[in-house]
Target: Inositol-1-monophosphatase
Amino acid sequence: MQPMLSTAVKAARRAANIITRASQDTNLLQIQHKDHNDFVTEVDRAAEATIIETLLDAYPNHAILAEESGQQGDSEYQWIIDPLDGTTNFLHGFPQYCISIALVHNGQLEQGVIYDPTRNDLFTASRGQGAFLNDRRIRVSKALKLADALIGTGFPYRDFTHLDTYMGMLRDVLQKSAGVRRPGSAALDLAYVAAGRFDGFWEIGLNKWDIAAGCLLVKEAGGLVGDFQGDDSYIDSGNIVAGTPKVFAQLLQTLAPHVTDALKA
Model:
């Protein structure tokens, strides 16, 4: 395992210890509302602090972009961190959440870790070295047709600007696929595409920390990732489509009639 990836795994496991202990009694947690349906707890902050401390102990000159504490430092290396993707699930005892850590070097994704502490599923990827689940090589599924594909998604829950657009997308994908699921953690959804548990995924308006590690996993597992036009702006725009090569193309085609000018920007 690459040294930087190994450090990220160590950081994720340390954060998972904090999250797992807190999950035993979430009623004791202090919860703040950042926005409508957007929660943060002291667990998010403690997990993030542990991740940052672990990373900067090993690489003190690296920059950080983290969900709760924002951006710090200036370096050609930047760690992108979501300490608890799926906070709402976590607060309700719904076991679908994870830690997501990615490393970008000069704008290119190099390392990715997604760790699901409820299942002890550790997804890792290094650019050009493949994707792994608990040290076992993973590949996207062999799905060739959207009609046979299980698709993951995340519907709007904070910003409803594109709600009508999304509902049109959902209606068409429901009719043309084998099924649609919305588990509530975009990072894990992308990891599931990489592992062949989903055949495709799409969502509107995600953040970098939601998708950075997962995008690398999908690509290293042989899948494709793009924005709604199939291009590479997804990390910045947060509008993302991912899947097996065949399903990716068919999913793009299905979504295309609903893509507004605002979603092309």
Notes: The chain has a mean pLDDT of 93. The chain has two domains: 3-138, 146-263. Residues 3-23 form the longest helix (21 residues).
